[in-house]
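Incident log, structure service

09:12 report received: a user says their structure output differs between two submissions of the same chain.
09:20 pulled the input from the user's history:
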Amino acid sequence: MQCGTCTGSCGSAARMEHTPRQLWRMVQAGMKDEIFKSRTFWLCSSCYYCTLRCPRGLPLTDTMAALKRVAVAEGYTTDRKSAPFYKAFLDSVRKYGRVRESEMMARYFLAVKNPAVPLSFVPLGMKLMARGKMDLHMPGFGGRGKLDRLYRKVMELEAAK
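09:34 re-ran on a clean worker, output below:
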């Protein structure tokens, strides 16, 4: 079944080289090189809308997350800005139980090692601060390593596969 509900549900589909429907078919066909050359799966925001609307109940969002993990594990992340962003996001969640945006972006900028990348975010940052959507103050919410045990258990389970 290739109905396309996932693509119609995806808010990021317009920016992807392959639609979620096409990517799902590529996974089924084992087109590993083509999948990992694209940035399609990196653009998945994990909103689960495609998974919730899929009439077959396919685990599309989980598949996108698995593709990200495989890409990192097998070194398909060179030349990619998405992999360090993904890692910085997950590290923040692991550490605090939620995302601390300012720290996450600082980690991301350090990881990409390109001074032009942080500069490209200045206009967006200024707009967000002007609208009160971003604060440079980092409140002390969550506990350090709040989700470490959960992450370790998931890593153990994935390694056992």
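09:41 both user submissions now match this output. Likely a transient worker issue. Closing.
09:42 reviewer note: The longest helix spans residues 82-96. The chain has a mean pLDDT of 83.
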